[in-house]
Every structure is written in structure tokens, then in C-alpha cells.
Amino acid sequence: MARRDPDIALSEPSADQIKTTTCYMCACRCGIRVHLKDGRVRYIDGNRDHPVNKGVLCGKGSAGIMTHYSPSRLRAPMKRVGPRGSGEFEEITWEEALQTATGWLKEVRGRDPTRFAFFTGRDQSQALTGWFAQQYGTPNFAAHGGFCSVNMAVAGLYTFGGSFWEFGEPDWDHTRYFMLFGVAEDHASNPIKTALGKLKARGVKVVAVNPIRTGYGAIADEWVGIRPGTDGLFVGALIHELMRAQKIDLDYLARFTNAHWLVIQAARPAMAANDGMFARDADGKPLAFDKATGKMVDATRTDITPALVGSFMMPDGNIARPSFALIAERFLSDEYTPDNVAKQTGVPADTIRRIAQELAHAAFEEQITLDQPWTDWAGRRHEKTVGRPVSMHAMRGISAHSNGFQTCRMLHLLQIVLGSIDCPGGFRYKAPFPRPTPPPNRPARATEPNAPLKGAPLGFPQGPEDLLIGSKGRAQRIDKAYSWDAPLAAHGLMHMVITNAALGDPYPVDVLFMYMANMSWNSSMNIPAVLKHLTAKNPETGEYKIPKIIYSDAYSSEMVAYADLILPDTTYLERWDCISLLDRPISGPDGPADAIRHPVVRPDRDVRPFQSVLIDIASRLQLPGFVTEDGKPRFPNGYPDYIIHHERAPGVGSLAAFRGEDGRSYGRGAPNPAQLEAYIGNGSFYEHHLQPEQRYYKHANKAYLEWAKDVGFIGGVAPIVFQLYLEPLQKFRLAARGHGPIKPPQTHKDRIEKYFDPIPFWYPPFDNDVADSDGFTMSAITQRPMHIYHSWGTHNGWIRQITAENCLYMSSERAASLGIEDGDWVWIKSAIGRVKGRVRLMEGVNPDTVWTWNAVGRRGGSAALAPDAPETTRGFLLNHLITELLPEREGGYRFSNSDPVTGQAAWYDLRVSIEKAAPDEAGETSPRFEPTKPPFAAKTKLETAS
To answer: In 10 A of CB 584, how many CB atoms?
Structure first.
């Protein structure tokens, strides 16, 4: 046997140092280990100790090294020197950049803070950015949610104090029937992939309801290829069948919901100011009819036998009925029978009946019973923990429609009538949820110059009195959130900011500040119009209608070319971040968890972390809370100082663990100067484990509620009552009928009356009939592949090798009827324009639907792409075709293309026609905008002078 030469290294170490931090390649926030050698990133893998991914890492996370070293990273602060949109910039110093930004913001704050608008993308630091807006004094703040999933969040928070996504997840270990609604594979990919593996191993049936069979749907046991926008009808039919067969959990409804609360049914509804409101006693307590005593009693009492059906005479002569009776009446009507629903949804009636039977069997015949005692809020001890093992998960696919809010409410109603919220085998809350229904914080109004708001800019209205409107009903926010256009817009309407600001509707803005919000491209609708708005000038003054635009990003997105001042951010491996329980944490159902990112490498460019830059600007502006009494910076070391020392309430800060001077407190405790080092030493995260008796029925669990109050998650220990009948919506309806001091304008009355129904219902997405009559008979939607999250993938060379162009996918049968073959080029037309792309045929798609991968098509000059890059020559976006404003209604008013309740962008409502392109039109996508000059061509002042 030959001897090995001792000088030959057969296995050279790939790293001389490994640091743990948190991934930023999607919203999953997995734990990662970054392998470093000579100060450079060499490899990224998963952290096996991390509660989110337990070592599993997807392609996005592993490819993070190429996002960090992307050639499209911005390199220095810049100011615009050419026309807006040209991409002509000059590099400047940070001091000049900060002085410029501070000067612009100071002038506006001293005159009218509402003329400053601050909108962010998927930045994951909204606790800080929202507080900055609050202390500045502008209500014009929001983040990505209004474009993505506000229907999902608001419907859940108003109904049962939680939601899907970061707020809750299925009980993967105990569920026996699992349904996915509108879920793409780009979000929460590692936990869901792992969990689906568990379900498949246990033989649990997985049903995917989605117009497209990709990703998770591809491994489902059953795919329901529903027509886009009809999910609510399908869910309503399931509720109909369960009620018809009396397969609902009445005890659960009486114990945890307002199903037994009496609703006033006035003899003349239009004339009565209390019609549709809950009947209440002199103390404001809701009333129920106690079958044991035959009397009206406090509905919150635990010693009653409440009626769930019937009609009862009130002392004032009005009739009152339990809310459940009204709900059952609606869903047992012919409107929701499987036979009537089948045609519109494309789901056979027999399939609907069978799935309803399977849900009932799993919930009631396969009941889960755990040997775990617990005590409810009223002090009643339960020796067992019993659950209905049916679970669901839903995402953007059912949310991004103009009927998404009520559709999401229907899905929650389905879960609740089965008794499957926060029980073994069902949906489970993730701390700090559940919250009261609805959460108590209201949106704050603008006050006066040089003064902070009296509360956070985002919140949860409970009636017309909480709207942000002026004396004549004019919206007080630039996006018209919390106005009669979108009363429950808890995440704002990011997609309307540029349009409204340029049109001066409801008023113009002077400074628009965006962070990681590519609002001129893939985070907008009707891109051609938005680009015109960004460059539109006032004909009288010659100045841009949006006078000043500040943009911060780590990469050269399309938005860069339209900014006047660029503040370059770091990559996620070069900065501090806080995944906080005040924001969108990484909790699991068995305990809260939070995490940090910390700089594992130093920047090699003249860039600074956005959060620290924002804190610097706040200090220069002397914003309250950001400076000490003598005017010095309160957080002189930037964001890490803020994470440690900022307190949202006494003892409650950004991170929950290692608090107190000795670092031993959790939840509440004095700031600990060594807190960040403690997190780093713990793998850059901390997970608190709830006691076994605290883990289920958190909405009514005495041990959990008391603990959650102690650590600052909730303000009291009262049980969280599920709102099947949502009374705040009825308050808006009554205002539309003319009751109360605050009433909608004439143009809005019918809209409020129709869509603010306190009982969830289905209605067609807006203008479907108009689209059909114009020949736009097909739905067009987008999906995201598992390896791409938003448009970030284009900045990553490895991901580009997987997907650098996108095609239009449609069913083979439908294509044949149009004379289209695989690989043909087609025009995709909507009411406002057309785009051109290449067709790929498939079987796993609803025949009335076409779709494509989102956020692949790019504009020339962005993302450091070559002029002939596939993203610009063969990639396209459907955003060009989606109108941002609906057609004029009676009175000439134009509403945004959004859900009427929350303002959620309705970008899944797009209707199109497909036409084969001429032979000489094949080969490249359209439209093609003039390329902008890459920001890397920016000159320094010295170069400009010479």
C-alpha cells in the first residue's frame, strides 16, 4: 500500500470560523451557520439547534452567499444629477446624504408632517420603522402587508385573535386531515416541507385547494383546481354540508364564541340605529337567552345553558336572535348548496360533499384526547385536553382578491364550527398571539407640526369613530387607509401611495421615503402609469409632482432610478436585525421565540445599515424618544443600542430573553447591556418553552392568559371570545344608513352597506361581469417558486441559473381550443394593456386560468444585469396589466382595485384574453422600457468636476 504524501491536504478546512445568525432569504427566518475563511463567506448551512428549521435549509438559504456577494449591491450614497428615471447619479459622502435627508424631513415636519410618507417593503423591522413614523408625527406609514396579505391577518385578528402565517400553524404532530388554501411554496418553506413529510409518513390526507398544482399541491393527496376568487363559495358549501348534517361542535361554539349572543332584529332595519347590534344589559354586557331559566342573562356567564337558535322578544319590543341562528340561516340557504356552488367554483358537487364528510369524520370520529389537565379562565379544571384533528393553512392565494377579507373570515368560520382552533390536531396560536378580538389599539391621527402622533400609525378600528378622516370625510392618509375607502386597512395600501401622491388625491406629499419597497416595478399595479406618476411634473412650476424621493436598499432595484437620494443598505450578513415579539417573531405553538442577526462580515463598500441610518436621522431631527433630555442621541451606537435599550412599555423591549441587570429575566425586565452577546452565545435566538398546561386553548387557558399578561403580551386575563358575528362591521353599515355622527359620503354608502356584513359571505370579485363582456374570460395569477422570494432572486447568480425567465402556463385543452401550442408566443391582454410571453402547457391548472412565476421579469439597467439578460428579454410581469383604479362609479368616484374592507391589493382578480402572436413577434417579451443607467456608473464629485 502506497504511503500518502504528508504535504498533500486531501481535505482542506472550508472555514476558519463559523458564526450563527438568522437567514433573510425569505420570511421563514431560519437559523443558519455562516462558514468564514479569511473574513469571507464560504458556505451557509442550517443551524440544527434552531427552532424554526432545525438544520433544514432550502435552496434560497444556501444560496444566500451569492446574494451577499451580488454584483448588484449598491456601493455608496448617491444623489440624482440627471432627469428622474434616467439613473444618472453622483456619489456623495454619508454626511452630505444625512444632512440632505434631515433637511428635507425637518422642513416638512415643521410645516405639515402628513406631507411626509414613509413606506417599507419586507424589511422585518416594522417595530422600529413604525415608531419612527409615530415620533415624526406622520400617519403615512405602512409596510408590505397591504400588497400581500392584510385580508388574511385582519380577518383572523378580528375573528379569533390570530391568523395563519407567523401568527399560527397546524398541530403537525396530531392533525389527521390537512387542507391548504392558496399556498405558494416560497413562504415558510422549510417548516412546511418538514411538516408535510411528517403528515405523509403518518398517512394524513393532504388536500390542496389552488387553481395551480405546483409545489406543496404537487404532493397533496387531492388537488382541488378551483377557479380564482371562488374559494369563499367552496368554503361556504363545506359549512352548508356540515350544518345540514349537524356535524358541528355546538359545545365549543357556546363555550368560546359569540354564537349565543343575541342580535337585535329591528322591525324597520333602515330606521333603527340598533339594528344588527348585540343586545346588551345596563352594564354593556352582551345578552343571551338561558334555556334553563327562560330569562335574558349576561352571555359571558359560565353557569347558563344558552340558546343558539330561536327568536326572543326584548323589553323594548324588538326581536333578538342568537348570532348563530343568523349564521346558520345564511349558510343553509340554497346559495351555498354544493350543486349551486359547483358551476362557479369548477369543483364538482360530489367532491364538495365528500370533502365535507371527510372533515366531519376526522373532527368527530377521530377525536384527539391528551392526558393533559388544564384550567380554563373561569377556574374550571379539565382533566383531559380534547381536540378536533382537522387543520388548515392559507396564504396569499385567497387573500389577494377584492373578496378576500370575507373569504378569509369564512375559512375561519369553518375552522371554528368544527371546534379546531388551538386544540390538539387543529390550528394552534403562536405567541404573542392570541390577542383580544379585535386588538385594542386604534390608528393614530395626525396632530400638529413638530409633534409625535399620540399612538401608532397602524391599528384596528372598531367603528366609524376610529376612521382617519377630516370634517368633510376626506382621507387623512395618503393611501386612504382608515377612510371610507378602506376602513379596516391595518397594513395600509402601499400600492396606492405613488398614484395618490402624484394626483394629489387626497393631497400631495413633499417627501416620499421608501425602504426595500420596489414600488415602481413588482410592488405596484399598472406599472406604466406608476412610472409616469414618478416623473410627472407640475405644469405651472416645472417641479416634480412628488418633489423629493428618498430610497434605501442594498441592491439596484428598478426604484433606484426614480429616487433623488439613495441611502445604500448593507446585506443581511453585515448588519444587526431584530426578529422581535413586538413585530413578526419566529415563535412556535409551544412557546414564543425571537432572534437576531448580527454582522458576521464587514462591508467592503461605503454602505450603512438602514436601521442605524434611520436612528441617526431621527436623532438629527430631535425626535422624542430618539434623543435624551439634553438633545444627545439616545442610541449613539445605532440599532444595536436601540435593540437593547428601547422599551415599548416598562420592562418590555425588542427582545424578550436575557433581560434584567443579571440577564435572568424573561418578558419583562430592565435593559441588559450584555443582551446581544447572550443571544449570540445562544445561537442568535431564544425559545421559551410553555408549561404543558399552557399550550392549548390559549384563548381561554387561565395559566396561559395570566403568564401572557405578566410578560406583556396582552393587557388583561379576560378570555378571548371568537367573533363569528363581527359587530364592528355592523357599526359601519349603520353609518351608511344615516345613523350616528360620522357618515360615509353618498358615493360610498351602497358599498359600505353591501360589503360590511357582520356575517361572512361570498361575492364575485369586482368587475368580473365587465371583464367577461369585454372578452377577458380567463383569470391570470402568479405563483412564486420555492427558490425565489419577491424579486430578490435576480440579485443571486445561483438562483438565476435555475430561473432567469418565466413563461405563461395554461392547460393543454384550453390552449388547443385557441390554436396555441407549447412554446408559442402569445399576447396576454387586459382592459388596460398587453404583455407578450412564451407559453408552456400543463395539466395541473384550472382550465379557465393562466399563470406565471412572479417577480422574474426585470427592467434593463436594474440588478446589474447584462443588456441581453433573460430577465429583461424573455421575462415579463403581469403587474403591467393590473389596474390600480376601478372604473368610475356613479358620481364619478374611482375606488382603488382593492378589497373594500381592508384595502388589500386585488392583484389576483386580473382577467385577460390570450391571443397567439404573429411569427415576426416571437422571441422577446413586451413591453420593453428604455433601460436606465446602472447606478454603478455614478461618478464621484471629483470625477464630475473633472
So the answer is: 20
Average confidence (pLDDT) over 298-304: 96
Query: What was the pLDDT predicted at 2?
Result: 53
- Helix segments in 227-335, DSSP class H: 231-244, 250-256, 323-331
Across 277-294, average pLDDT: 97
Which residue type is seen at 376?
Answer: D
- For residue 145, what pLDDT is reported? 81
pLDDT at 196: 93
pLDDT band at 891, cuts 50/70/90?
Answer: confident
User: Are 863 and 871 within 8 A, CB to CB?
Assistant: yes
- What are the C-alpha distances in Å from 261 to residues 161, 246, 318, 709, 727? 18, 20, 15, 27, 11
- In the chain, count of helices (H) and strands (E)? 27, 37
Rounded CA-CA distance 600/597 in Å is: 9
Rg (the chain; Cα; Å): 28
Give the pLDDT confidence score for residue 626 in this predicted structure: 98
Render the burial of 205-225: b for 16+ CB within 10 Å, e for the rest.
Answer: bbbbbbbbbbbbbeebeebbb
Is residue 39 within 8 Å of 16, Cβ to Cβ? no
pLDDT at residue 943 greater than cutoff 70:
no
What percent of the chain clears pLDDT 70, i.e. is strictly above it?
97
CB 248, CB 240: distance < 8 Å: no
**DSSP for residue 553:** E
In the block, residue with C-alpha cell 405523509:
200
**In the sheet that 78-80 helps form, which strands lie side by side, from edge to edge?**
141-142, 116-120, 511-515, 548-553, 565-568, 78-80, 89-91, 939-940
Q: What is the pLDDT of residue 270?
A: 80
Q: Are 289 and 296 in contact (CB under 8 A)?
A: yes
Q: What is the pLDDT of residue 791?
A: 79
Q: Can you read off the three cell numbers belonging to residue 477?
A: 392618509
What is the structure's pLDDT at 705?
98
Question: Per-residue pLDDT for 917 more than 60?
Answer: yes
| Whether 146 contacts 907, CB under 8 Å | no
Please return the burial class of 469, using the count of CB atoms within 10 Å of its CB with bins 0-12, 13-18 and 19+.
buried
Taking each helix axis from N to C end, the angle separating 94-111 and 610-620, rounded to the nearest 10 degrees, works out to: 50
Query: CA distances (Å), 466 to each of 469, 490, 728, 729, in order?
Result: 9, 12, 11, 13
Overall average pLDDT of the 774-787 stretch: 90
* Cis geometry, peptide bond prior to residue 434 (ω within 30 degrees of 0): yes
**Angle at the Cα of 568 (from 791 to 39), degrees rounded to 5?**
90
pLDDT digits 0-9 by tens, 197-211? 999 999 999 999 999
Its pTM stands at 0.96
Beta-bridge partners for 428: 169
Which DSSP category does 711 fall into? T
3-state secondary structure 456-497: CCCCCCCCHHHCCECCCCCECCCCCECCCCECCCCCCCHHHH
Torsion of CA 524, 525, 531, 532, to 10 degrees: -140
Mean pLDDT of the region 509-515: 97
Q: Is 534 helix (H, G, I), strand (E, B) or coil?
A: helix
Q: Distance (Å, rounded) from C-alpha 426 to C-alpha 454?
A: 39
- Max Cα distance, the chain (Å): 103
Contact predicate 861/87, CB 8 Å: yes
Quote the pLDDT of residue 6: 62
Identity at 480, one-letter amino acid code: K
Evaluate whether 443 touches 456 at the Cβ level (below 8 Å). Answer: yes
The pLDDT of 794-821, averaged and rounded, is 95
What pLDDT, in 10s, does the model give residues 364-373?
A: 999 999 999 9
- Give CB contacts under 8 A, 24+ apart, made by 240-246: 240/331, 240/332, 240/336, 240/337, 240/338, 241/338, 241/352, 241/353, 241/356, 241/357, 242/356, 242/359, 242/360, 242/414, 242/417, 242/418, 243/328, 243/331, 243/332, 243/417, 244/332, 245/356, 245/357, 245/360
